[in-house]
Design goal:
This protein is mainly β. Strands 2, 3, 4, 5, 6, 7, 8, 10, 11, 13, 14, 16, 17 and 18 form a 14-stranded parallel sheet that branches. It is globular.
């Protein structure tokens, strides 16, 4: 690997203020923490931290990745048998405790079909997807659910090149199933066998040489990628920075297309540099279009594994925070972690990276993760599962009142998923609070469960999904569903959302339960009345009031009537006539009616 410049990504160990009285709120820490991993890179070379100064560590970095990270190389015997064994265990284990990361060293693998079940991630360990080629398939189908793919959640594929056996790879997923940094040397089919229902999905930083065929997929978002064509649309297909994307045509067909993504920074990923594990941190891109790796070695920095605390299930908040305070990043290996206090990310440039859907459960009403008002923090690849005692907030990005300018080095939240109920009773007032300016939320599914264990209007009570208080926040790929009040409440100025998918809470018992003063129901996406500048592209809300199909939802979207607040490509859908929308946004847009499940659309607002 070419290394034309070398930087240290490890800052001096910070000093910490006294612990706050509340486990879910922290005073603003200011900019005392040192900036890390932010120096420029020359050409297409990778900057490495391998030569950084020695660290006097109290907590050891690096180490074994644990039993649920399974690493293959081309000479490993029995690869297919191992893949089949894990799939058999995880295929229908929607709320089970199994978590797996399947990692493939660079090289060529022949004749594989990696079927992915729940909480299973597959990834290559090269610096580029083309370093690791599978002559075969990475498959998601829906046989376990009688051909219905709407519950194919929590699985991922990353950093591989595929040569599908039939010429087309099948990836029939729903929410929380990202397809990142993939090169498909053929086509991609997003529907289950038999073309059953499907509700996905997300592609980023990927190249599909052939056509993408969504078929039955209700909605999809594709970012900073290249496709050989796009076959059809159902309700809401959104593209930003995608070479080969269809032209803007919403609502017929419902394509919302942006030539570029305003700001993006790809998710961190684990890779092998020779025999050494490192984590690559892609650099920020502005007005991005196409993949970050198509021109050769991607731009960014590398951090060796010995600068990460390699966490294992059973590690608690005290252990994880001790590692952070000692200057380490966190690598969360697959499993379930119970926390009696927040993971406190106070140092600029800190990386918290999960493998195999590592899951954090805050106990006793704690917040799971709190991020200070500092530059360059990267949260990626983990699931937060609400505990049985109500948490005021599950994820807090920046403390209340955060005001620092992070435009040069934003905080990123990528493939961080939140769940309230389903695996058991859970409660949270607000699931995700974004207080820090310039934060990028790149693909999240924030879900108050509508099925599974511990589900009921008050059993898994969760009033707000995502609350954005910070200014200049960008969301790319926002999925938020089933909250008791506002699914998204946006209070910050100059916010932007590219793609939004929502379902209102199925289980509202009656009209009175969702009445919002004089308004019938809480909007799926509410921009505060005092906001003067906001913009959104490709936003959809669906209602399915199964407990009381007579419920009326006044509108899907609510926003101030001011020239600086703009929306493009809005739709609302009544699923089978279970509940109805009166309007799309405010008092604009036709009502849904009957049981025809036909969207009502607004091309532009105002």
């Amino acid at each position: 690997m070419n290394q034309e410049s070398r930087v240290s990504v490890l800052p001096p160990r910070p000093t910490h203020p006294a612990s706050p009285a509340s486990p879910s709120r922290r005073a603003v820490l200011g900019a005392a923490a040192a900036v890390a991993a932010t120096l420029p890179v020359l050409g297409t070379a990778v900057a490495s931290a391998a030569e950084s100064a020695p660290r006097e560590a109290k907590v050891a970095g690096g180490g074994d990745l644990g039993p649920n990270v399974i690493v293959f190389d081309p000479s490993t015997p029995g690869i297919q048998a191992k893949l089949d064994e894990i799939f058999k265990q995880q295929e229908s284990a929607q709320f089970g405790a199994g978590r797996y990361a399947l990692l493939f060293k660079p090289g060529t693998y022949n004749g594989l079909n990696a079927q992915l079940g729940f909480y299973t991630s597959i990834a290559g360990l090269g610096l580029s997807p083309d370093d690791t080629t599978i002559n075969g398939d990475v498959t998601v189908d829906a046989g376990w659910f009688d051909g219905n793919a709407t519950q194919n959640f929590w699985r991922s594929a990353e950093n591989l090149a595929l040569v599908p056996v039939s010429g087309t790879n099948r990836w029939a997923v729903a929410q929380a199933a990202p397809f990142r940094r993939m090169h498909v040397r053929g086509g991609l089919n997003l529907a289950p066998d038999g073309y059953g229902w499907a509700s996905g999905g997300y592609i980023a930083d990927s190249r599909i040489d052939g056509a993408v065929a969504p078929y039955s997929q209700q909605q999809w978002y594709t970012r900073d990628s290249s496709v050989g064509g796009w076959e059809n649309a159902v309700w809401n297909m959104v593209f930003s920075g995608v070479e080969g994307a269809p032209a803007q045509s919403f609502p017929d067909p419902p394509y919302t297309t942006l030539d570029a993504t305003p700001v993006s920074r790809e998710k961190p990923f684990l890779y092998l540099d020779g025999a050494d594990y490192k984590v690559f941190l892609p650099e920020k891109r502005t007005n991005a279009r196409g993949t970050s790796w198509g021109g050769g070695t991607p731009r960014g920095t590398s951090v060796p594994l010995d600068q990460f605390y390699v966490a294992k299930p059973g590690d608690g908040a005290a252990t994880l925070n001790a590692a952070l305070s000692d200057g380490l990043h966190l690598l969360l290996t697959p499993g379930v972690y119970h926390l009696d206090a927040p993971i406190q990310v106070d140092r600029a440039g800190t990386v918290v990276l999960g493998l195999g859907y590592a899951t954090l459960i805050p106990d006793g009403g704690a917040t799971a993760v709190e991020v200070a008002d500092v530059d360059g923090v990267r949260l990626a690849g983990f699931l937060i599962d609400a505990g049985t005692v109500n948490s005021e907030t599950l994820l807090e990005v920046g403390p209340q009142g955060a005001s620092a300018d992070h435009s040069a080095d934003p905080i990123t939240v990528q493939d961080v998923f939140v769940r309230i109920g389903g695996a058991g009773a859970g409660k949270a007032t607000t699931s995700m609070a974004i207080n820090a300016r310039h934060t990028i939320v790149d693909h999240t599914w924030v879900w108050r469960a509508d099925h599974g264990e511990g589900v009921g209007w008050d059993t898994n009570r969760a009033d707000y999904g995502v609350v954005v208080n910070g200014d200049d926040v960008l969301a790319t790929g926002l999925f938020v569903e089933h909250f008791n009040k506002y699914d998204v409440q946006w209070n910050g100025e100059r916010g932007r959302t590219i793609f939004y998918q929502n379902e209102k809470a199925y289980d509202a018992p009656n009209q009175a339960a969702i009445q919002n003063g004089s308004v019938k129901g809480f909007a799926a996406y509410k921009v505060a009345d005092n906001v003067t500048t906001h913009e959104g592209w490709g936003l959809g809300s669906y209602c399915n009031y199964t407990s009381d199909p007579t419920i009326q939802q006044g509108h899907g979207f609510a926003a101030p009537d001011t020239p600086g607040v703009k929306f493009h490509g809005l739709l609302v859908v009544s699923l089978g006539g279970k509940g109805q929308y009166d309007h799309v946004i405010n008092d604009i847009g036709s009502a849904t009616s009957g049981d025809s499940t036909v969207p009502s659309t607004v091309v532009s607002y105002p």
